[in-house]
Amino acid sequence: MNAIAIDGPAASGKSTVGFLVGQSLGFLYFDTGVMYRAVAWAILDRGINSADSEAVGRVAEELPIGVSAPSDEEPDGRQATILIGELDVTWSIRSPEVDSIVSVVAANSQVRQALTQKQRLIGLEHGSGEAGVVMVGRDIGTVVLPEAPLKVYLEAPLEERARRRFIELSQRGNEANLAKVLEDLRRRDQIDSGRAVAPLRPAHNAHRIQTYGATIQVVVNQILALAEKVLGVGPTSTGNWSLP
Ligand code: CDP
């Protein structure tokens, strides 16, 4: 099976690194966090209370979430285009408002059941194909795709992750405050690690990589070296390997 599971806490570098590994190997890159974010966005849009677990669970079951590769008309740095029905929510699901409720939404067991099932199907379909898949999230190596032959868990100190997220938000034009971003991440870490269903934790056979002080390229190369050793795959000529 050609599947690479990448897990780790918020802003540990999963999506940047996972995207580049996918491009290099010519594997499908799939960030499962966008599905939880899409549900959180819909909850806010519909004025549903995030504590109303039944209503939130129903939204997760019914929401028509679409994820596709960006087209040439969308050169704004997006890794994928995220749709709810016909509506492009690629950037709105990254707002501080979504950040503030997404972990509560993701702790809902009905939400997890609905989304994990879809994610597992995508992982199995692409992971058993020749092209392969890089799946990124919190529970890929433990719950979504426990049979993935290569599992990576990215780590970085809270302060460093807050600094990265603050820069990201500021660059996208969101008004951000470093101390608040840090507190939000601390709270999300607690909810993600402490929830009863599929808590954030490294799989017992995951390779733990510390990203603090390492460049993106160094981390990507570490994972590519593991992919070569474990999966026997290397960068493809079609792999569009470039740093952002
Ligand atoms: O980008 P960031 O690391 O901040 O978050 P994300 O990967 O987009 O995920 C948003 C939230 O969705 C996380 O804080 C988790 O609460 C939840 N999530 C999850 O529970 N399981 C996953 N496989 C992916 C995300």
Could you give a short description of this structure?
It contains nine helices and eight strands.
Structure notes:
The chain is an alpha/beta fold and 244 residues long. It has a single domain, classed as P-loop containing nucleotide triphosphate hydrolases (Rossmann fold). The protein contains 9 helices and 8 strands. The strands form 2 sheets. It has a 5-stranded parallel β-sheet with strand order 2-6-1-7-8, sandwiched between helices. A 3-stranded antiparallel β-sheet has the order 3-4-5, with helices on one face. Mean pLDDT is 92; it is low at 239-244. Residues 10-11, 15, 32-33, 36-37, 102-103, 106, 137-139, 188, 192 line the site of cytidine-5'-diphosphate. Cytidine-5'-diphosphate (CDP) is lined by residues 10-11, 15, 32-33, 36-37, 102-103, 106, 137-139, 188, 192.
Which short descriptors sum up this protein?
9 helices; three-stranded antiparallel sheet; Rossmann fold; five-stranded parallel sheet; 14% strand; binds cytidine-5'-diphosphate; 8 strands; 244 residues; single chain; alpha/beta; disordered C terminus
Please bin the fraction of helical residues. Answer: 40-55%
Q: How many domains make up the coordinates? A: 1
Q: What would you call the quaternary organization?
A: single chain
**DSSP strand (E) fraction?**
5-15%
Looking at CATH, the homologous superfamily is P-loop containing nucleotide triphosphate hydrolases
Question: Which ligands accompany this protein?
Answer: cytidine-5'-diphosphate
Q: Can you identify the CATH class?
A: Alpha Beta
Distance between the termini: 29 Å
- Structural class from helices and strands? alpha/beta
Biggest β-sheet: strands ordered side by side in the sheet: 2-6-1-7-8
